[in-house]
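Structure (tokenized):
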């Protein structure tokens, strides 16, 4: 079990930790990407290198590692910045080396920043138990902060403790909607648990004001239809997905992504029609088709024309000749047979 289950931390008041914004991880969890998407603690203004580090905030990781060698003096924040830069470069060995130097210093366990970076490094290297213990220690120190809960959610997810992961992600999301990573994490674990409706609801709860709104809606469309049997009653989800594609188009979704989504929705609709239209109640055949999907009637012929049209648009938008040829071939495969 993950230590420090949700709601089980200390209730004692604690000073507020300083955290930067988190970034959502879309699609399947990539633990290396998840590490870098976690909130970044703010630099301690009392650190002797605070001013120096402020001037390096926009430096690329490789440039940062080189620049840190000329820091005015050694300090905890300088070494922590080096650890993170090396993690961003994929240099886990170098990050662990810097971290060990910090941990050899007196009272390293008393510095939550060192413990937090220990968790990041452990998560990067697949040492999920150490990562969970480290983030749990930060959670105990700052029970009201979303960041350690988010990190513990990731640890629970990679350890296969889906119920715990869902609870951590849910706690973060209902507390602070700026942590959109929590909504995506909640959707991931609910999908893995078989709760597709809950996953879609989590993604659709991302507000329109969020910069990640479009990504969340795209993920919701895919969550509705991917990895589903065409023999399931898909009609409601097909219509909902089609409406969301149209809504995103009205809000300025680029043509490439619009047509990619259209091929997914129309392709699922075609498979559903060919599998016998489970659950639509339209036993009367094509004439009884209930409504359109992205401008195509729910008949094999119309859906094939819709897919052909979308693939031809994607072919025109393709930047590389090989991709263009492949998309034209797909369009031709979907084109209905005609006598002329």
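Design, position by position:
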């Amino acid at each position: 079990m993950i230590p420090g289950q949700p709601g089980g931390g200390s209730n004692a008041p604690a000073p507020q930790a300083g955290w930067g914004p988190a970034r959502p991880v879309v699609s399947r969890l990539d633990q290396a990407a998840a590490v870098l998407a976690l909130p970044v603690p703010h630099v301690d203004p009392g650190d002797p290198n605070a001013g120096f580090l402020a001037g390096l905030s926009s430096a690329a990781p490789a440039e940062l590692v080189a620049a840190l060698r000329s820091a005015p003096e050694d300090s905890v924040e300088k070494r922590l910045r080096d650890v993170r830069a090396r993690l961003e470069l994929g240099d886990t060995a170098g990050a662990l080396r810097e971290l060990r130097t910090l941990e050899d210093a007196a009272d390293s366990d008393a510095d939550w920043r060192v413990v937090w970076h220990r968790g990041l490094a452990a998560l990067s290297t697949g040492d999920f138990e150490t990562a969970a213990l480290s983030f749990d220690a930060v959670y105990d120190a700052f029970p009201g902060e979303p960041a350690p809960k988010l990190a513990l959610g990731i640890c629970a997810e990679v350890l296969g403790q889906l119920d715990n992961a869902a609870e951590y992600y849910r706690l973060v999301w209902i507390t602070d909607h700026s942590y959109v990573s929590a909504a995506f994490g909640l959707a991931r674990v609910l999908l893995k648990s078989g709760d597709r409706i809950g996953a879609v609801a989590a993604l659709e709860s991302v507000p329109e004001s969020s910069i990640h709104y479009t990504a969340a809606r795209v993920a919701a469309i895919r969550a509705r239809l991917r990895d589903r049997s065409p023999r399931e009653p898909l009609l409601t989800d097909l219509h909902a997905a089609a409406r969301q594609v149209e809504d995103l188009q009205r809000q300025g979704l680029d043509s490439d992504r619009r047509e990619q989504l259209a091929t997914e929705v129309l392709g699922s609709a075609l498979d559903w029609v060919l599998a016998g239209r489970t659950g639509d109640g339209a036993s009367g055949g094509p004439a009884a088709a209930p409504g359109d999907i992205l401008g195509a009637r729910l008949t094999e012929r119309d859906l094939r024309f819709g897919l052909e049209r979308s693939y031809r648009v994607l072919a025109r938008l393709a930047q590389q000749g090989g991709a263009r040829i492949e998309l034209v071939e797909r369009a031709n495969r979907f084109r209905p047979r005609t006598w002329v």
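Reviewer-requested clarification: Confidence is low (pLDDT under 50) at residues 7-17, 19-26, 283-289. The chain has two domains: 1-204, 228-340.
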